[in-house]
Amino acid sequence: MSVTTLDAGSSHILDNPAWAALTGPHAHFAERIGHAARYHRDVAPFYAVSDEDDPRAWADLAELVGPGGTASVRGVTEAPDGWEVFDTVQGVQLVDTGLRAEPDPEAVALGRDDVPEILDLIARTEPGPYLPRTVELGTYLGIRHRGRLIALAGERLHPPGWTEISAVCTDPDHRGRGLATRLVRAVAAGIKERGEHPFLHAAATNANAIRLYEAIGFTLRRRTAFSLVRHTGAAAVEETAQPCRCP
Predict the structure, then answer these.
(1) pTM of the predicted model as reported, rounded to 2 decimal places
(2) Residue 33 is part of which domain span?
């Protein structure tokens, strides 16, 4: 896979999308101390620092997670003193450069009442982390068969001008019908109606998903890592963060 370099003036915000979201459109979901922030724990498991090379940001993150706490962060493979990386998933970031976005007549909007069914589908398909209030991050669409939710996609990170498409999954008994593609196009249609640009993340090992996204109009922008880091400055405390298992 080759990495496409996009115009820095329009895409540099994607170098640190969680920070841009938590200090921008998703600020109402954020807990923040100085140069570090995280989503409310029942919304998303992601943390972010303003600059991974800034010791002040890591000091603020240490205060945010507490002694021995853990944080799921992007782009970190070597942690500074006082921290350790104990789980890393290699990922890729893709952006829309030619996606045909269009509504889907069978797609239905999902909300809080649908969360138990969403979590059941997520548990069976494992596209990535999904928590009880993740549905509040943006529009989530699903397709039902005989009343049962069989496919899902929605909006997650929301840096200014961009929206991430996430939680793309299909029940194993209904794969091969193009449901995921239809839902990605439908979610993208709503994003583009707002004048924003779709992007997404995938595990670097998920070659089938990457091929699908590239085939429908996404372009690989960069490779990155999603790591779980632990603050080692004091005894461990219980923490609920998870590494990003990207869809």
Answers:
(1) 0.90
(2) 8-92+223-231
